[in-house]
C-alpha cells in the first residue's frame, strides 16, 4: 500500500509514470512508462510463471517457486497463473506492487473454463443447449466467482472447432460448427468480460488456441494439424474473428500444434497479419504452456534463444512457462537481433489490458473485500447451473415413449457413474471441490423416485500419473450379477454409463471411444435381463453408441453436467423438464468414420449407387453419422411447414411455421441450413446459418424467421478473401442438420 500511496502523491505532483497509468490517456501514459522501464522490466511484463509446477505439464529446470517470487520482487514477472485463493493472490500481488522498483501490478490468470467454484456443465454440454443467453450467464457467473477470489483473467473460452471426438479436448469447445461456435464464443467472452472490464467482477477472456489445435491428426492431443486454407478461413477462424470483432476479447492464446509446417507460436501470419493487423486486435497474445520452447522439439527453432526470437517476431507477446523470453529476449534486443519496437509493442499490449482491468487504479481491487467471496456457490449461482445443466441434456432416442418414467414405476438405477460425485464436475473444475456434484442417486432421492441402486461395474480402479490422475478402466465384473438381478425385478432400468470426468480433456485422447472398460458388457447383460432400459451417457465427447442405438429403447446424452448434474438428469428422466438440447457435434457410428461432420464438401462421386463399387462410401457402413449434428428429441413433437422466402434489398428472409404437435410444452431449436450449390470454391453440402430456440405450449404454433445477408451468403476463398457470389442458393429448415423442408432463391447483388 505504501507504494500506491506514494504513487498517488506522485500523481498529484505529476511525476510517477506508474501512478499516471491510473489516468485515462492510456496510450500516452504507456509511452511514459515504457520510457521509464529497463529492458529487463519490459521482458518481465512478457514473462508469465505458474505458481505451482503441475498444472498441465512438467516445468523445465531452473525455477523453484521461491526463485519465481524473488523475480516478481525484481519486476521481472508480468503475470502469474494458477495462484488460487484470495489471500494467495493478494500475497503475490503485494510482492509486485510493494517490492518491485516500479510496482507494476501482476495480472492473474487461471483456467476458469466451466465455472469457478460453482461448476457448470462442460462447454461442449453447454453448447448443446444452443441457448446463447444462458451460456453468457454461465460465463458471467464464472467471472464473478473467479474475480471474487482475486483472479482477473481466464484462459477461456476455447473456441477450437473440432470434428474428431477422439480428441479429448472436444469437451472444452463448442463442437464442430463454425457458426454455432462463433455465437457461443461471443457469448462466453461477453459473459467473462461484461460491459465494463474495469469493474471488480469482470475478468479478461482468452480465445484459444490460435489456430487449428482441434484438427490434431488422429485426434491425438498436441499432434500436427494439416488442413487447407479454405478450412482455415471458413471453419477454424470464424469463432476467433467473431470474438475479436463482436466482443472485443482482450487476450488470445496460441497453440501447441504446427500448421503448414509452422508452430503456431512462431506463426506471424496467424498472430500478426490476421489477428493483430487484419482484425485490429489490440489486446495481447499469451503462448500456451511452454509452446515457445517446444518449437525446438518441433524442429523449428535451433535452441531457446532462437525460439525466443521466432516467437516475439511472430507476435507471441507473453511467454507462459517457457523461460525463453526471461533468458534470451534482453540479449536478443541488445545484440540487435530483435528490434526494441517489437518488445515495446508487446509490453504496451500487456499494460493496456492491465489498465483496462483497473489494476493501475487499484491493484488490490479484486482482493480487497472479503465479502466478495460470499457469492461463491450462492443459491442463485446454483440455480443457473441447474438451468444450464437441464438445457444441456440431449434426448438421443426414445422408442415408444419409454421416457419419461411414470410415477409408481420401480426403477433399477445401475452404474458407478450414477453415484459418482466427482465425474460430473468434468475435467477443468477450476476451484470446484472434488466430490461435491449432486449424483443421480441423490437426484432420485430428492425427487422421491422409487429405486434400487447397484454399482454394476466401477469406471476406474486406479489412479496414477502426472499431473492429474490417469483413469484406469476396471476389468472387475463382480458387480454384474447383483445389477442383473435388480434389473430383472424392476419395471424399468436406468443405466448410467460412460466416461469418468478425467477421461476427456487435455492429454486425454482415446482411440476407442466406445463405453470404457467392461461397461458395454454390463449394458448388454442388463438389457438382456430387462429390455425396458434407459441408457444415460455421461461423457466429455461423443461416444460410439451403435449397439445401444440398435438395441436400447431410450438414450439420454448427459455429458458432464457440473454441480447440479443429478438434479438435472432426474428432472429429464421424470419429465419434470422436457429435454430440448441438440447435438453440437455428430456422433459417429464407428471410429473408422471419423471425421464425420455435417458440413462436408460434396465429392465427385457422391452416390449413393446401389450395388455399385466406385462411389465415395464404406463397404461396411453408411456415410451418415449415428446421430446428426443438431439432433435432439423432446417428449413432444414438432412440425415444420410453410417455408417462405422473400427477398428485399440486401437480405433474404426465410420463414417457417413451427408447431408443437404433442400434448406437453416443449422447447425446439429451429435451425436454418444454407447451400450454395455452385461457387468458385466448392461449398459444403449445407451450413448452419441461423437458429432460434422456441418454447411452445401443446398445440401452439409460431412463425420463425431467419434473415440472410452477405455475412451468411458469402465465404472465404483459399487466400482469405471474403466473397459473395451471385447465383442460386438452397435453404433447409428443421430440427437438425438432416432437415428436409427446403426452398431456393437466386441471389444477385446488382
Ligand atoms: C495448456 C492448455 O493447452 C491451455 O489451454 C491452458 O490454458 C494452459 N495449459 C494453462 O493451464
From TrEMBL:
Hydrolase among keywords: yes
Gene3D superfamilies: Glycoside hydrolase family 3 C-terminal domain (3.40.50.1700), Glycoside hydrolase, family 3, N-terminal domain (3.20.20.300), Immunoglobulins (2.60.40.10)
Protein name: Beta-D-glucoside glucohydrolase
Lineage: superkingdom: Bacteria
GO biological process terms on file: carbohydrate metabolic process
Residue ranges occupied by any Fibronectin type III-like domain in the UniProt entry: 668-737
NCBIfam families: PRK15098.1 (NF011678)
Pfam families for this protein: Fn3-like, Glyco_hydro_3, Glyco_hydro_3_C
Signal peptide: 1-21
Family note: Belongs to the glycosyl hydrolase 3 family.
GO molecular function list: beta-glucosidase activity
Lineage: Bacteria, Pseudomonadati, Pseudomonadota, Alphaproteobacteria, Parvularculales
Key words of the record: Glycosidase, Hydrolase, Signal
Amino acid at each position: 500500500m505504501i507504494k500506491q500511496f506514494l504513487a498517488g502523491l506522485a500523481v498529484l505532483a505529476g511525476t510517477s509514470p506508474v501512478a499516471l497509468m491510473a489516468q485515462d490517456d492510456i496510450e500516452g501514459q504507456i509511452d511514459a512508462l515504457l520510457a521509464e522501464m529497463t529492458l529487463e522490466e519490459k521482458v518481465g511484463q512478457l514473462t508469465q510463471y505458474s505458481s505451482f509446477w503441475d498444472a498441465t505439464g512438467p516445468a523445465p529446470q531452473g525455477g523453484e517457486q521461491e526463485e519465481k517470487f524473488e523475480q516478481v520482487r525484481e519486476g521481472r514477472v508480468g503475470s502469474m497463473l494458477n495462484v488460487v485463493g484470495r489471500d494467495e493472490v493478494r500475497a503475490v500481488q503485494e510482492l509486485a506492487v510493494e517490492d518491485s522498483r516500479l510496482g507494476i501490478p501482476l495480472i492473474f490468470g487461471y483456467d476458469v473454463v466451466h465455472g469457478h467454484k460453482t461448476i457448470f456443465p462442460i462447454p461442449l454440454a453447454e453448447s448443446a443447449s444452443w441457448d446463447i443467453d444462458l451460456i453468457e450467464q454461465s460465463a458471467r457467473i464464472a467471472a464473478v466467482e473467479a474475480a471474487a477470489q482475486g483472479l482477473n483473467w481466464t484462459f477461456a473460452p476455447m473456441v477450437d472447432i473440432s470434428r474428431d471426438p477422439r480428441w479429448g479436448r472436444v469437451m472444452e469447445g463448442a463442437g464442430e460448427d463454425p457458426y454455432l461456435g462463433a455465437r457461443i464464443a461471443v457469448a462466453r467472452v461477453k459473459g467473462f468480460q461484461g460491459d465494463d472490464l474495469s469493474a471488480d467482477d469482470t475478468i479478461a477472456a482468452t480465445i484459444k488456441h490460435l489456430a487449428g489445435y482441434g484438427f490434431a491428426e488422429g485426434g491425438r492431443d498436441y499432434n500436427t494439424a494439416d488442413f487447407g486454407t479454405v478450412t482455415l478461413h471458413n471453419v477454424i477462424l470464424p469463432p476467433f474473428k467473431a470474438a475479436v470483432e463482436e466482443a472485443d476479447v482482450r487476450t488470445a492464446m496460441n497453440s501447441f500444434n504446427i500448421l503448414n509446417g509452422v508452430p503456431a507460436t512462431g506463426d506471424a501470419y496467424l498472430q500478426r497479419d490476421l489477428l493483430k493487423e487484419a482484425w485490429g486486435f489490440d489486446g495481447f497474445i499469451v503462448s500456451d504452456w511452454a509452446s515457445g520452447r517446444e518449437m525446438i522439439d518441433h524442429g523449428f527453432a535451433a535452441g531457446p534463444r532462437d525460439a525466443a526470437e521466432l516467437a516475439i517476431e511472430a507476435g507471441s507477446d507473453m511467454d507462459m512457462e517457457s523461460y525463453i523470453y526471461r533468458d534470451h529476449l534482453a540479449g536478443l534486443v541488445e545484440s540487435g537481433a530483435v528490434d526494441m519496437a517489437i518488445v515495446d509493442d508487446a509490453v504496451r499490449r500487456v499494460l493496456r489490458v492491465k489498465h483496462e482491468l483497473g489494476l493501475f487504479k487499484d491493484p488490490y481491487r479484486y482482493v480487497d473485500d472479503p465479502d466478495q467471496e460470499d457469492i461463491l456457490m450462492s443459491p442463485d449461482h446454483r440455480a443457473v447451473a441447474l438451468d444450464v445443466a437441464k438445457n444441456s441434456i440431449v434426448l438421443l432416442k426414445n422408442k415408444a415413449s419409454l421416457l419419461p418414467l411414470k410415477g409408481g414405476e420401480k426403477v433399477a438405477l445401475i452404474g458407478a457413474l450414477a453415484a459418482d460425485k466427482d465425474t460430473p464436475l468434468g475435467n477443468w473444475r477450476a476451484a470446484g471441490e472434488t466430490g461435491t456434484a449432486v449424483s443421480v442417486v441423490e437426484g432420485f432421492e430428492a425427487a422421491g423416485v422409487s429405486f434400487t441402486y447397484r454399482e454394476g461395474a466401477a469406471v476406474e480402479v486406479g489412479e496414477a500419473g502426472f499431473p492429474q490422475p490417469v483413469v484406469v478402466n476396471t476389468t472387475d465384473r463382480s458387480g454384474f450379477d447383483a445389477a442383473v438381478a435388480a434389473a430383472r425385478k424392476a419395471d424399468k432400468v436406468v443405466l448410467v454409463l460412460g466416461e469418468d470426468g478425467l477421461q476427456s480433456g487435455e492429454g486425454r485422447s482415446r482411440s476407442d471411444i466406445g463405453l470404457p472398460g467392461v461397461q458395454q458388457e454390463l449394458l448388454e447383460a442388463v438389457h438382456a435381463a430387462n429390455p425396458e432400459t434407459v441408457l444415460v451417457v455421461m461423457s466429455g465427447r461423443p461416444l460410439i453408441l451403435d449397439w445401444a442405438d440398435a438395441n436400447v429403447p431410450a438414450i439420454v446424452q448427459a455429458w458432464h453436467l457440473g454441480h447440479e448434474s443429478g438434479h438435472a438428469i432426474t428432472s429429464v428422466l421424470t419429465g419434470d423438464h422436457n429435454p430440448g438440447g441438440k447435438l453440437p457435434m455428430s456422433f459417429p457410428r464407428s471410429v473408422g468414420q471419423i471425421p464425420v461432420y455435417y458440413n462436408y464438401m460434396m465429392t465427385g462421386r457422391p452416390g449413393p449407387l446401389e450395388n455399385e463399387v466406385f462411389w465415395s462410401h464404406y463397404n461396411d457402413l453408411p456415410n451418415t453419422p449415428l446421430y446428426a449434428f443438431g439432433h435432439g428429441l423432446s417428449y413432444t413433437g414438432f412440425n415444420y411447414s410453410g417455408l417462405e422466402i422473400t427477398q428485399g434489398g440486401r437480405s433474404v428472409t426465410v420463414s417457417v411455421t413451427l408447431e408443437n404437435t404433442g400434448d406437453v410444452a416443449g422447447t425446439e431449436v429451429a435451425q436454418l441450413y444454407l447451400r450454395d450449390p455452385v461457387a468458385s470454391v466448392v461449398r459444403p453440402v449445407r451450413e448452419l446459418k441461423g437458429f432460434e430456440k422456441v418454447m411452445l405450449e401443446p398445440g401452439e404454433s409460431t412463425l420463425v424467421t431467419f434473415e440472410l445477408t452477405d455475412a451468411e451468403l458469402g465465404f472465404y476463398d483459399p487466400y482469405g478473401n471474403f466473397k459473395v457470389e451471385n447465383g442460386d442458393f438452397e435453404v433447409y429448415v428443421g430440427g437438425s442438420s438432416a432437415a428436409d423442408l427446403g426452398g431456393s432463391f437466386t441471389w444477385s447483388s446488382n
